[in-house]
Design goal:
Blueprint lengths: L9 E9 L5 E6 L8 H8 L17 E2 L1 H7 L9 E5 L2 H17 L8 E4 L2 E4 L6 H17 L7 H12 L11 E8 L8 E9 L17 H4 L8 H13 L12 E4 L1 H17 L3 E3 L12 E8 L14 E8 L2 E3 L1 H10 L3 E4 L2 E4 L2 H16 L4 H6 L21 E5 L1 H11 L19 H16 L3 E3 L7 H15 L6 E5 L4 H11 L5 E3 L9 H10 L3 E5 H6 L1 H5 L2 E2 L1 E5 L10 H7 L2 E2 L2 E4 L8 H11 L7 H14 L3 H11 L3 E2 L15 E8 L3 H18 L4 H20 L1 H5 L6 H6 L2 H15 L4 E5 L2 H15 L5 E2 L5 H12 L5 E5 H4 L10 E4 L6 H8 L11 E8 L3 H17 L13 H8 L3
Parallel strand pairs: 1-4, 7-10, 11-16, 17-24, 17-25, 18-20, 18-22, 19-20, 21-23, 22-24, 26-31, 27-29, 27-30, 28-29, 30-31
Antiparallel strand pairs: 1-2, 2-3, 5-6, 7-8, 8-9, 11-12, 12-13, 14-15
InterPro entries: DUF3670, Helicase_ATP-bd, Helicase_C-like, P-loop_NTPase, SNF2-like_sf, SNF2/RAD54-like_C, SNF2_N
GO molecular function, one term: hydrolase activity
Protein name: DEAD/DEAH box helicase
Length: 910
């Protein structure tokens, strides 16, 4: 361990632990060797790092991506009064590697030393060590992904990068002017669009372009006198934009050229998206995106001669086509002529309509396919068609009609509705090897899983926590491996925390299945894995998400009978190495198990569907345009309904509140335990609020968000205990309880529960609160509760869960992140939430550790809320978020986006 002595410098001693998922865990120590809390040191190395809200995203966690390491340690971000050193020699080496990569990152010659070979970046410099090169190229890839670009865009972007366009940042303009690219629709007498460079003053909303007589003048001559001093900047910005576009034009003159409908399509699809990703301003006609809902309607009547049984899924359909434009019927020949002319934008009266030629070609191709191919009912229901799965609605407003609509004869329509609702499916005989009885709704789940496998469609089983997704999957595996014999193994990927649980559940319910666990340092890797599986011939292979990511290459070479993801939300971040690796696995059938198919963003739903049924939701860009933007931005009920209809055939979701399930679970009572602040807490609370509100008046929008997020975390810790907020050590337990009514109530309640011979779970999101609860329960009541946090090894975690279920200890404290999913803790009949989580779905998952199948007693849920504080006010907001969560959609709105008056009301101490 090294030390740096200076009266003005703060010395941070860092250690680095590279994780399996590509992230690096960083810990900091003081000069006495004591480990610091993350929030005690994170602000010193991220005080200029906006993407992490100046370190606030790392309030509890200290895991960093390659991109974050390179940006945080770049010369331009270095804190003038902070010196970093390594805890051990290997940490010193890691710091040197990061700093070398950071130096290259901000070097003006970076892109002279990088080449793009075989879809990957190669650093040609002989001065850079291999480790620094690897870290640098990984960071570059992550930076590109963060703005919607990929490595394949690099050849096009190289000229821009070499001319100072790296690192990527918004093009903020120079002094008084801003330069943009504008696309204007054709005049009434023309079919030509205008693409031109425009300039505006920083304080003006009016865009200027040269008059006709100066169109051919050099930029410096064409500019007004007041802006001539900025001619070089205007020239440079326009040159950069032209380098990124497929438009040929002189860089010395203001761009002003006519383009066709086809050019507009290419510009919007490629050039505009790339320019906006790189921070350039692109101005489009306001109607351009909304106009996609044009007045061109296509209806097709699908009929079969008869339709009676499931075998009818393979019956042949016949189609009758009808077209209308702006409410007027057009013939099939007229439609075909519009397709051949490639027209996209058509003016009818004073209105413009976009007739998407790509879409029209797809319809034309669809017509040809239905004429030349024998389409079946199955293809009608599941094929990727424009709006094919939209439910028909009775409406008097033609504008609400879908662009593309199927009309079905009554018998076919009735049957498809039954199929959408998953009713009257063929019954699957339960294997005699299953050592339990399925509940009626679990039998329905098994029938559906088997039916979807036979039809070749992936599935997402999204039943509520505790309804038995595991046993339904085990019944499915027995059917596949014992009823329909196969020589291919089934593959299950799960979080490390529940790997032991899967082993026990398989052994308990299906001991006839041969299970192989692919995990640990001694596991077979590379080619030896396939050889081992060929020799062992297991029915089921179990592994974890981290191991699957590490061994992705070898695992992707194996053809699996089925691939199942348990807690499938682990692949929600689609750009991570883990998510991409798992989505490449090859199985005859892909299954996702999750109680929360959407935790926060619709992009998570897309990632799960990209695994279970690749291509069904289209490319991510298309999904973003069709669903994410209108739902998360505009809260469009129409688009929500479209998405529900589209995913319904592949998603089975049942909740404990569903009366049709006849669960006969014991009652559950949720109640708020309201606690007042102590005098000390109230004074600290008021002081922090006043200090923060004063600062907010001087900050920009982005800095304001960062400050609010930091303050929210401090307030929540202060509501728990002032010692956590002040970063103090723990004193005598009685004194600690006097300083916080909430702590006293939790400790007292837990002790009373234990005294009655009952058991309870206590969830908290703060490590310090968990340790404080341990301290007080031990000192005052001779109860030594274990604390399950993310750093606990798997074996120790499994042992604690088993011991708790065997009633070996009465109180179990759990970190909300580490213990909120995947654990079966039905021995508890009380659940205590010490602090509230912003996402109600996460809190409910934690409650479901106790309130699940296997629970035989009344479950009492205690949610501790500090009166008059942000906790009480957030509690009301949680009810609204819960409604969104149950709808499988969660808004991306955040507290930081509240109006100033609403924010002050939220923060004011009641």
């Amino acid at each position: 361990m090294t030390s740096h002595v200076s009266p003005f410098m703060k010395n941070l001693i860092l250690s680095f632990d590279q994780m399996d998922d590509g992230f690096t865990t960083v810990h900091a120590y003081n000069e006495e060797g004591m480990r610091l809390f993350t929030e005690q040191w994170i602000s010193f190395i991220s005080f200029q790092h906006e993407p992490s809200f100046y370190g606030l995203h790392h309030d509890e966690e200290s895991n960093f991506s390659s991109l974050e390491l390179v940006e945080l340690f770049s010369p331009s971000s270095k804190h003038p009064y902070v010196h970093v050193s390594g805890f051990a020699p290997e940490d010193e080496s890691m710091i040197a590697t990061i700093q070398q990569a950071s130096t290259f990152w901000s070097s003006p010659t970076l892109w002279d030393e990088l080449t793009f070979e075989e879809d990957s970046l190669v650093h040609s410099s002989t001065d850079a060590p291999p480790a620094a090169k690897l870290l640098l190229t990984s960071a570059i890839q992550q930076k590109l992904y963060s703005v919607g670009l990929t490595l394949s865009d690099i050849p096009t972007l190289l000229p821009f990068f070499k001319q100072g366009g790296w690192p990527l940042k918004a093009q903020s303009g120079q002094g008084e002017v801003n330069v943009a690219l504008r696309l204007s629709e054709p005049e009434s007498s023309s079919d030509e669009w205008i693409l031109e460079t425009v300039v505006r003053g920083k304080k003006s909303s009016v865009h200027w372009t040269p008059p006709f007589r100066k169109k051919q003048s050099p930029i410096a001559d064409a500019l007004p006198d007041k802006w001539k001093v900025h001619a070089a900047y205007v020239h440079e910005t326009q040159s950069n934009m032209l380098d990124l576009m497929s438009v040929e034009a002189s860089t010395d003159l203001f761009l002003s050229r006519s383009i066709s409908d086809l050019d507009v399509r290419h510009f919007l699809r490629d050039d505009a998206a790339r320019l906006q990703a790189l921070g350039f301003e692109v101005i489009l006609p306001s109607w351009l995106k909304a106009v996609k809902e044009s007045k061109l309607r296509v209806k097709s009547n699908a009929k079969t001669t008869t339709f009676k049984t499931t075998a009818g899924l393979n019956e042949i359909l016949t189609f009758d086509w009808n077209f209308s434009l702006n409410g007027q019927a057009i013939s099939e020949d007229q439609f075909k002529l519009m397709v051949e002319e490639n027209r996209e934008y058509i003016r009818a009266g004073n209105e413009w309509f976009r007739i998407d030629s790509n879409w029209m070609h797809e319809i034309r191709q669809l017509m040809e396919q239905t004429e030349n191919e024998n389409w079946t009912v199955k293809e009608l229901l599941f094929r990727e068609l424009p709006d094919a799965l939209i439910n028909e609605e009775d409406t008097s407003d033609e504008d609400d009609d879908p662009l593309f609509q199927f009309e079905l004869n009554q018998s076919l329509k009735r049957y498809l509705e039954q199929l959408q609702e998953k009713k009257e499916l063929p019954t699957t005989t339960v294997s005699t090897h299953l050592l339990t009885e399925l509940r009626p709704y679990q039998q329905q789940g098994l029938d559906w899983l088997v039916f979807m496998r036979e039809q070749g469609f992936g599935v997402c089983l999204a039943d509520d926590m505790g309804l038995g997704k595991t046993v339904q999957l085990i019944a499915y595996l027995l059917h596949v491996h014992r009823t329909h014999l196969t020589d291919k193994p089934s593959f299950i990927i799960c979080p490390t925390s529940v790997l032991g649980n899967w082993q026990k559940e398989l052994a308990r319910f299906a001991p006839d299945l041969d299970v192989h666990v692919h995990y640990g340092q001694t596991r077979s890797k590379d080619e030896s894995l396939a050889v081992e599986l060929l020799a062992l011939k297991p029915d089921v292979v179990l592994t974890t998400f981290g191991t699957a990511s590490q061994d992705a290459e070898a695992l992707s070479e194996i053809e699996w009978c089925s691939v199942t993801l348990d807690e499938a939300q682990n692949i929600k971040n689609m750009h991570t190495k883990q998510s991409r690796a798992i989505r490449k696995l090859r199985g005859e059938h892909h299954l996702a198990l999750t109680g929360t198919p959407v935790e926060n963003r619709l992009s998570e739903l897309w990632a799960i569907f990209d695994f279970i049924y690749k291509g069904y939701l289209g490319s991510f860009r298309k999904f973003q345009e069709n669903y994410i933007a209108p739902i998360e931005r505009d809260d469009s009920e129409n688009h929500k309904q479209k998405l529900r209809a589209k995913i319904r055939p592949f998603l089975l979701r049942r909740t404990k509140q569903d009366p049709d399930l006849l669960l006969n679970l014991p009652d559950k009572q949720e109640q708020r335990e309201y606690c007042p602040l102590t005098t000390e807490q109230a004074a600290l609370y008021e002081s922090l609020i006043q200090e923060t509100l004063f600062k907010l008046e001087t900050l920009t929008g982005f800095e304001k968000k960062g400050l609010i997020l930091k303050m929210l975390s401090k307030l929540k810790q202060l509501c728990n205990h002032p010692a956590l907020y002040l970063k103090e050590g723990f004193g005598e337990a009685e004194y600690m309880m006097e300083r916080s009514e909430k702590l006293a109530r939790i400790v007292t309640l837990a002790a009373e529960i234990a005294a009655r011979g009952e058991q309870c779970l206590i969830f908290t999101q703060y490590i310090g609160m968990g340790h404080l609860l341990q301290h007080c329960l031990s000192e005052l009541h001779d109860i030594d509760p274990p604390f399950l946090s993310g750093s606990m090894p798997k074996q120790q975690r499994d042992n604690l869960v088993e011991a708790f279920q065997e009633k070996e200890f009465p109180v179990f404290i759990l970190s909300l992140k580490a213990g909120g999913t995947g654990l079966n803790l039905t021995a508890a009949n009380h659940v205590l939430h010490a602090d509230r989580w912003w996402n109600p779905a996460v809190e409910n998952q934690a409650t479901d550790r106790a309130y699940r199948i296997g629970q035989t007693r009344f479950v009492h849920v205690h949610k501790f809320v500090t009166i008059g504080t942000i906790e009480e006010k957030i509690d009301k907001l949680l009810a609204d978020k819960q409604a969104l969560s149950e709808d499988l959609i969660q808004s991306s709105q955040w507290i930081t986006e509240m109006a100033d008056e609403d924010l002050k009301d939220l923060l004011t101490l009641g």
